[in-house]
Write a structure and sequence with these properties.
seven-stranded mixed beta sheet, binds flavin-adenine dinucleotide, thioredoxin-disulfide reductase (NADPH) activity
């Protein structure tokens, strides 16, 4: 293990819209941010998608990886230093915080911005990731528009699944909700809304056993009955997976306060966490909105909060 003598003003952990926006603002404030962007996931979740049509400023839409490359270049232009590595350990307790990279090098900073995002839960089917953006999606707000007049399946039984299903009826010809159990977990009001929508039907006691593809696009599904194991085919060219997400907070457990679902707790509307000098931004904090623009907005807020915290120290 080695340690630099330099104590930075700010370390940012994460290089999605939240991390890069925090980097841009802290760099322009001349705080020399050191950004750990991840070893394999530089640029964050949007690097796994193609067209982004709802990020303001791009009337024709923008490719997800291109948008993230632009955000990176903009932060670097003002001096943000971006390292393509994971942070493996943190000690956030003291006035000077330490973060340790995968090579064991310890980096020190007076403020840390956590923007590690969250991951959508997957079904675990072999071609699920390959079909992402090719009929399989995790976000109706992001992708619903692309599914006009299609037969769509939503998998899940909670509020998010009902919300996605109801939202998708604006575009879809039909929506089938597939749920493993015979009753939904969703709240009464969300259930009623879905039950009363004539475009929505339900496949209870069912799970998705296989995804079929034609020319690289989703062309249908096999459903398996969870009670007797029998299978049946379902023609659908869209699948929205709404079985939850997991915030990437393992690293901070025991040091920062998390809520019951594992999300980082902040003193909303600020981005202050339970530890002075540590700020949280983006999907690692956000149960509700989970969009690139909201992540970028909270990255900006975290940078401003960090800037004010550092100014008060001097
Ligand atoms: P992320 O973008 O998830 O970034 C998290 C970052 O943290 C990554 O860089 C990762 O490498 C890093 N990280 C994690 N752990 C560590 C660690 N230990 N050390 C160092 N780095 C770490 N939103 C829209 O607004 N419009 C869309 O069209 C849209 N489409 C989407 C399509 C797909 C397929 C997906 C998955 C999401 C989509 N979203 C869309 C949602 C959007 O991508 C997220 O809301 C947004 O990226 C969240 O930003 P974030 O910065 O909080 O986290």
């Amino acid at each position: 293990m080695s340690a630099g003598t330099d104590v930075r003003d700010v370390v940012v952990i994460g290089s999605g819209p939240a991390g890069y926006t925090a980097a841009l603002y802290t760099a322009r404030a001349e705080l020399r941010p050191l950004v750990f962007g991840g070893a394999v996931f530089v640029g964050g979740s949007l690097t796994t998608t193609t067209e982004v049509e709802n990020f303001p400023g791009f009337p024709e839409g923008v490719d997800g990886p291109v948008l993230m490359e632009n955000m990176r270049a903009q932060a670097e232009r003002f001096g943000a230093e971006i390292v393509e590595d994971d942070i493996a350990a943190v000690d956030l307790t003291g006035d000077v915080k330490t973060v340790t990279d995968t090579a064991g090098t310890v980096h020190r900073a007076r403020a840390v911005i956590v923007a590690t995002g969250s991951g959508y839960r997957r079904l675990g089917l072999p071609n699920e990731d390959a079909l992402s953006g090719r009929g399989v999606s995790w976000c109706a707000t992001c992708d619903g528009f692309f599914f006009r007049d299609r037969d769509i399946v939503v998998v899940g039984g909670g509020d998010t699944a009902m919300e996605e299903a109801t939202f998708l009826t604006r575009f879809a010809r039909s929506v089938t909700v597939v749920h493993r159990r015979s009753t939904l977990r969703a709240s009464q009001v969300m259930r009623n809304r879905a039950f009363s929508d004539e475009k929505i039907s339900f496949a209870f006691d069912s799970e998705i056993a296989a995804l079929h593809e034609e020319n690289g696009m989703l062309s249908g599904l096999t459903l398996r009955d969870t009670r007797d194991g029998t299978t049946r085919e379902l023609a659908a060219t869209g699948l929205f997976i709404a079985i939850g997400h997991d915030p990437r907070t393992e690293l901070f457990r025991g040091q920062l306060e998390l809520d019951s679902a594992g999300y980082l707790k902040v003193e909303s509307p600020s981005t202050r966490t339970s530890v002075p000098g540590v700020f949280g931004a983006g999907d690692v904090v956000d149960h509700t909105y989970r969009q690139a623009i909201t992540a970028a907005g909270s990255g900006c807020a975290a940078a401003l909060d960090a800037e004010r915290y550092l100014a008060a120290l001097s």
